[in-house]
Amino acid sequence: MSATIAILSQKGGTGKTTTVRTLADVFRRADLSVLVVDLDPQGNLSDYFDVPPDASPTIADVLVGRAKAKEAVVNGVLPANLTLAEAELALAGKMGRELTLRRALREVAKDYDVVLMDCPPTLGLLTVNALVAADYALLTAEAQYFAMQGVDQATALIELAKDGLNPDLEWLGVVLTIADLRTTHSREARENLREHIGDRLFDTVIRASIAYAESAERGVSILDHKPARGVDYIALADEVLERLKMPTARRKVKAMLPAPA
Ligand SMILES: Nc1ncnc2c1ncn2[C@@H]1O[C@H](COP(=O)(O)OP(=O)(O)OP(=O)(O)O)[C@@H](O)[C@H]1O
Ligand SMILES: [Mg+2]
Prior knowledge:
Largest sheet: 7 strands, parallel
Order of helices and strands: EHEHHHEHHEHEHEHEHHHH
CATH topology: Rossmann fold
Helix content: 40-55%
Low-confidence stretches: none
CATH superfamily: P-loop containing nucleotide triphosphate hydrolases
Bound molecules: adenosine-5'-triphosphate, magnesium ion
Structural class: alpha/beta
Oligomer: single chain
Strand order of the largest sheet: 3-2-4-1-5-6-7
Number of strands: 7
Radius of gyration: 17 Å
CATH architecture: 3-Layer(aba) Sandwich
């Protein structure tokens, strides 16, 4: 059984790409086979996994029917670059435009335990394609007063996808990222979200740290660059695997957590 997860947010810079790549790092270390799908024309995720910007074919070719998803996957990455912006426009005029990714991924997804899709920072056609192709939706929200608004908008889109094209879509949860819980501001944002969405909010909070920018720049996983921070994503992976009901991988992830002091 494979689980396909769309990682999305209505806003930019909420840690989507960081979440996809770091969860992929943790899952792979727990011996899960992981496919990451870059659905952002910015190509940040592909960059992180060292896919050259002129790689071909990419997800853009897959979406317009020029290539099969299998042909575009390199080392567990289905990459994107700026050509995806054009492909999105071309897709907009087609029949079944919301179903294209779902159809394209069907064959390839079953070769993996987990498929993680990194959405662009808009709730447009690419994000809709991800939600229609997904089994689960994971929202990232920055720990700020405005987080709620973004979560509400993304929630509305998820409900639309469930009502229409993908009734089996399930919530995985909402994770608060780039949080400094020493500030009242971040703590209030968290309380506010908890009141609003209850159990959907993951207990794990991804703390803000400059180490993430450094690790992205160096192309080194946060798990190696700064294990004391990487531990946040190990805790998130643990919660995610609990919700996905994958106990074997969860045991391996738990073993990566430092022993309680
Ligand atoms: N926990 C964190 N603490 C501090 N900085 C972070 C954290 N997580 C990510 N960042 C940094 O914040 C920036 C945005 O992160 P990221 O690219 O993951 O967000 P995104 O939601 O994918 O952005 P976009 O919407 O543009 O695709 C990056 O420079 C990243 O290194
Ligand atoms: Mg991103």
